[in-house]
Design a protein that fits this description.
This protein is an alpha/beta fold. The chain is 24% helix and 25% strand.
Length: 335
Amino acid sequence: MKSREFRLKRIPHGIPGDGDFELATVDLPAPQPGQMLVRNLWLTVDPYMRGRMTGKDSYVPGWRVGQTLEGGAIGRVIAAEGNTKFKPGDVVRSSFGWREAYLSDGKGLEKIDPSRGPLQAFVGALGMPGLTAYGGLLIHGRPKAGETVFVSGAAGAVGSIVCQIAKIKGCRVIGSAGSKAKIDWLKNVAKVDATIDYRATPDLPKALAAAAPDGIDVYFDNVAGPHLEAAIGAMRMHGRIVMCGSISRYNDDVAKPGPNNLSLVVGRRLTIEGFIVSDHWNQMGEFLDAMAGWIAAGQMKWQETIVDGLDKMPDAFTGLFRGDNLGKMLVRLPE
């Protein structure tokens, strides 16, 4: 069968554009013994992918020009030749996104149980973004009941889950987002205690001080930049800053100055800790069990922004940097 896939055409500068991607068609042969053919149903775009487009290696290898892009995907096995672990009809999670179909020997594939939630949730709230929120907040943020937690990117795939876990743990939660629709969702669905529309706020530190007059204990950082500086200024003694992402800086060709108030880290005895979701893969089972309980109790909800068709992948991806998404940004493919 034929399958289309996106490749990196050139190294982007600033926010990637159409000229940075190439849509190619490949012929997939019939599965050989031990192989299977998988057709993707759901693809995810995530901010970390921008770092891979620099061509430089970091905690994950950078993509090279001409390379087929990768990302989280949910697919269905449509043919299998002598593979004892997977059979036609199985739904699998993989990192073989940005393409319609692929051949696999089973390595890197994980069978998922569709009875535990909608298929697309396994690359969203029940997948990498959800586990990022769970491990990042609970292991690195260590929230305690009664503390105040500030979350940037609070209506995004990770931030929205962080907000609700913090509420479940008895914290007061302040969420920052960049549109009225996102603020309304945080107030009415996630039930956060206070919100900041940073696009409508001329003075972010002042807005944060008004929302948290007694300061904040935990800051979950998805964006860096002015949010990080404002959070440092609002931290209480022995506060914890969880460094998850820096989406406001991912498209900078020239590094911008960092927070100008880092001296407060010493006097206030703050902890700043970064992490990668792969640090917590061994907690996936624990995380899914916890989520199942929270969902059943009505304590956990999520939102998805869905676009249709493989050809929309680049626009969906760059939409993350425009703030187009409420919750998880997903691309749906026909089955």
